[in-house]
Amino acid sequence: MPYYQFAKQLTPISDPVADLKRLRFITDADVKLTDANQLWRHLLQRVAVHTPTAASFETWLGQWLANPTLDLATWLNQATPVTNTIFTRVSCQLLGFEPGRDFDLTDPSTFLTTSKLTLPLGDEPLTPSALLTNFFWLLLTRGKNGQTLLDTLTGEGYLAWSYALPATQKPLLFNGQPTANFDPAQFINEVVFVETDVDTDQDGHADLIKVEITRPLDSNQGLQIPAIFTASPYNQGTNDEWGDELMHNVDQPLTHVNPDYQAPQEPAFAPPTTHQRVNGTREQATETFANTPRYTLNDYLLARGYASVYAAGIGTKDSDGRQTCGSPEQTAAMQAVVEWLHGDRTAFTDRTSGIAIQANWCNGRVAMTGRSYLGTLATAVATTGVPGLAAIIAEAGITNWYDYYRENGLVMAPDTFQGEDADVLAAETYSTTRNPARALADHVANENYLAQMRQAQDRTTGQYNAFWAARNYHPHLSQIKADVMVVHGLNDWNVKPNHAKALWEALQKLPGDHKLILHQGQHIYINAFPSLDFNEMVNLWLAEKLWQFPNQAGQLLPDLITQSNLTPGVWQPVSTWQAPLIPTALGHQMITINDQQADATATTWRHQPLTWFNSLLNDTDHHFSYRVTIPRHASWLAGTPTLTVRLKSNHNVGMLSAYLVDHGTAKRLTTTPQLINRHGLQLGYHWHTDDLRDFKLQNQPTERHVIAFGHTNLQNPTGPTSFHDLQADEWVTITMPLQPVMHELAADHELELILFGTDYRMSFRGNQALTYTIDLSQSSLALPWTDFSLQ
């Protein structure tokens, strides 16, 4: 497996010798040594964390091989000068790689090339200065366990001595990154209640929301630290069974939308009439908590001096209000947490006493993190331009809730969540149910609110309306002032890639330092991959954004990184996610697609959508679809394809679906990371762990893989805000974007476009007697062909 380390670059505030001295790997006396072998022995003693005696250290040295015939202890006793090659042989073993299995001890060069490990080779004797430089870079090199040697030593307790340092001397930096100098056993766990400016339960009082904070004790001792804030409506629990009960029926027909149709309006929330009176202040919180659902990236950062802050927001356990699913009120409530951390808002030590508390421990700089709903709210809060929010890391975040639950005039489910909608998600995350007395008192009002939401979201037509406009962040993206790191899966059919694409395109027009990482996964986190140094990149980046250390992370880290879809573990910078579109005609003939199936077939497909999916991919005889082979213009597709189709329906309703398919038999990458080592990642010393995992090739080859798709209502020929009063047998020209792609087409593969009607995995599936006639001579597909070279 290759190990890509984009953060492994010398920062301008780092000096290898000074950094090694700072972390006590060397002393002033070591720097003066003229014998490289003696210096190496001293460095190895630091690496051998659990060998306190000379005898145990000699035993430890005897575990490693210096060459194919001698262990390291014997070799050192011979006083043969250390060379780059000897250093690298031993280094590979210290990094967890096994001679004979992972690399050739005689000639490790091939292994170094394939693994992307930048370790030196050569037979010239090393000088002490060169040895120190080698050791500096070795500490920053990732091993087989997916961590740098420094992080591995940290997990073994090497830096425990630094816990006793004065708080104002922390964090200790190594190559411009904070290190784990904070004792997890002394972390403070506290609760505050932030007062918002919204009143979503309409009791007249400003909603209070519960905030859970974990921070180093040092932040009580004169060290002001930045905050990592994760806004997670799931944090206080979910109502999964209730959500299942509320799932909507999708086995129903498409209906014609009349031009005069008016969607029900969502009632507005009246602002609060009162705020809680401040009756006094305290320096320390009075309430605490035991456990909270955690994001392991936050835990990694917490051990390195960042505070970890979680809030579930309005409509959750121990907070006031309603779950409003992406509304401006939900954004404002999470914005209030940032304002408190920045020193601009009031919080209380409990819900009723009126005792105010400030975040005096915080340096006023905040980053928001999280995936899915969590990344969504990070983006939403960023669009407010709130002071104090210096950065966000938005992973698989929604940028427009219409595009999550709808598409071009159609009700369209996120993958595997057929029947879910905004009202269902609101009910699932309404963890007020975990306070039975409050839930009972609020039951009727909350049910009424959900009923109003159910009407306003309009599943009857799927049209864009005021409800969805209020939950569309696109018009506000220009107000983002924070630096943004976007992370998204190219195979995410839940929060689809067009959300990341919209955010990325908006960021290109804004000042600031913005990054994009595209991976080959579905709806996942990527911070536990051995092949990518995501944790180190984030630590380096946030050191600049939040600690304001001038490490130039923004200049050192690539702006756009993508993962290869052909070779496991390959990540490379690329220049663009929108190559120029090259149009291709789809043919010359008229073709017909019959959407209705036999009742037995439709029933099977409704209950087994994967069976339908496989039937579609193998429908080469055009029983219910039509496919076109698309000529190749380059090796890569990078951007958003655009499909134009001239067609008619035999009724005054209809929908067109399209899949773009990579056709060619191959073992493809898994879209879900595969477990490598459970609890294999140490996030600190006597601290949390994470499971080491990464993408691998599938065990069995597959013939086709869908790389992009799109759907449109024929009454919305050019997008969700366009509308046409469709008549039966009326020719219309539809233009729709497919999901954006970043995909390399193998040399022996070809590209296919599949056109069809009902999508049993995502759309309504009424099995209507619909027949579509398509004029291929008036239809085309514009594709973003380009050439990259990933190694």
From TrEMBL:
The keyword Transmembrane does not apply. GO terms for biological process: proteolysis. InterPro entries: AB_hydrolase_fold, Galactose-bd-like_sf, Pept_S15_Xpro, PepX_N_dom, PepX_N_dom_sf, Xaa-Pro-like_dom, Xaa-Pro_dipept_C. It is an enzyme of class 3 (hydrolase). It comes from the Bacteria. It holds the Pfam family Peptidase_S15. Its EC number is 3.4.14.11. One of its GO terms (molecular function) is serine-type peptidase activity. Residues 1-158 form the X-Prolyl dipeptidyl aminopeptidase PepX N-terminal domain. Keywords: Aminopeptidase, Hydrolase, Protease, Serine protease. It catalyses: Hydrolyzes Xaa-Pro-|- bonds to release unblocked, N-terminal dipeptides from substrates including Ala-Pro-|-p-nitroanilide and (sequentially) Tyr-Pro-|-Phe-Pro-|-Gly-Pro-|-Ile. Residues 539-782 form the Xaa-Pro dipeptidyl-peptidase C-terminal domain. The keyword Nucleotide-binding does not apply. Removes N-terminal dipeptides sequentially from polypeptides having unsubstituted N-termini provided that the penultimate residue is proline. Homodimer. NCBIfam families: PRK05371.1-2. Belongs to the peptidase S15 family. This is Xaa-Pro dipeptidyl-peptidase. It comes from Limosilactobacillus equigenerosi DSM 18793 = JCM 14505.
